[in-house]
Write a structure and sequence with these properties.
2 domains; Uracil-DNA Glycosylase, subunit E
């Protein structure tokens, strides 16, 4: 599920998502990621056009968010990708995730989070590229993570992480965030692709967990 801020003037008039200028940018980003619109449910935090494309007010978010809550309940997405500051702040607040100061907010984009059964992937809104061309490379990389999230790592069936997880020795977060999440960011995956040797007890973030090497029955 993609959660944008609010419909643009054209979207509001025609009742469709992303059919204006930012929609063209979104299509480019999805095409680069190899993801079809049909694979994604798209909605907005605020349901009506905000005159002059202004920022949403607190009472507008409060009024409209109940509709978003119902959408999430009905669709029950495994992955929620809020787009931009206001949608991301709302979704993180909903799932009681700590919200950084606005000056540090940008570091959230492209970082997958696990909250219960939900995976949250904050992304910059496509409209950002209409005003800041210098974020194109970053956004392209981050939007490609949507494709990775639709499939598990190809190495997972033979990965020691799967073995340790099934033994109850590895926290589920590692599997959900990497093996069945953003596996392109997994250091193990990257080393496998390069044919580089690495210990079985190296975690997806590259850190070494010695206790896994002494758990018996390891790889």
């Amino acid at each position: 599920m993609l959660v944008a801020q609010a419909p643009g003037e054209k979207e509001d008039a025609e009742g469709e998502m992303f059919i204006g200028p930012s929609g063209k940018v979104l299509d480019e980003l999805l095409k680069s990621a190899g993801v079809a619109r049909s694979e994604i449910y798209m909605t907005n935090l605020v349901k009506c056009f905000l005159p002059g494309y202004r920022k949403p007010k607190h009472d507008e978010i409060k009024t409209c968010s109940r509709y978003l809550e119902r959408e999430i309940e009905i669709v029950n997405p495994e992955i929620i990708a809020p787009l931009g500051f206001f949608a991301t702040r709302h979704i993180l607040g909903k799932y009681a995730v700590a919200i950084p100061a606005k000056s540090e907010f940008g570091r959230l984009y492209g970082n997958l989070m696990l909250v219960g059964e939900k995976k949250i992937l904050p992304l910059r809104h496509p409209a950002a590229l209409l005003y800041k061309e210098d974020v194109r490379a970053e956004m392209t990389v981050n939007y490609r993570k949507l494709k990775a999230l639709l499939a598990h790592c190809k190495w997972y069936p033979v990965c020691p992480m799967k073995h340790y997880f099934e033994m109850g020795r590895l926290d589920r977060k590692w599997v959900d965030l990497y093996c069945k999440g953003d596996w392109r960011s997994c250091i193990r995956y990257q080393m496998e692709e390069r044919g580089q040797a690495h210990p079985d007890w190296m975690l997806p973030d590259g850190s070494i967990e010695e206790r896994l090497g002494n758990c018996g029955g390891g790889y």
